[in-house]
Amino acid sequence: MKQTDPQYKLRIPEDVKSALEEAAKESKRSLNAEIVARLERSIEADKIGLTADLMDTLALQAILTLTLLNDLDTEKMSGSQLLAIDGLRQVSERVAKRLQINKKSPYFVSVVKDSDD
User: Fold this and answer.
1) With helix as H, strand as E and coil as C, how does the chain read?
2) Taking residues 70-86, what's their average pLDDT?
3) Of 24, 87, 104, 112, whose Cβ has the fewest other Cβ atoms within 10 Å?
């Protein structure tokens, strides 16, 4: 980005700013660069229609994964297999918690804003 790029004053909720600052720190970018990168990624995803479909796929995959894991017989599995299953369960639970099926929405899935995050 150049200093001559257009500027725009933006008001955002404090929790969103904090989350962006943390993400910027983790990705070793400035806050501005993090915001621009996320906006660019969102715009590109929208251009190919990925966003809504990806959210639907993630939510359904998480629900299916949790259902299958609940029926899985783990007694004869190795330690590394159990660790992998535990990791998969944790990720699926986080995704399922954040994305809920909403049949009344124009999209199949909606994002759940969680006050604990």
Assistant:
1) CCCCCCCCCCCCCHHHHHHHHHHHHHCCCCHHHHHHHHHHHHHHHHHCCHHHHHHHHHHHHHHHHHHHHHCCCCCCCCHHHHHHHHHHHHHHHHHHHHEEECCCCCCCEEECCCCCC
2) 93
3) 104
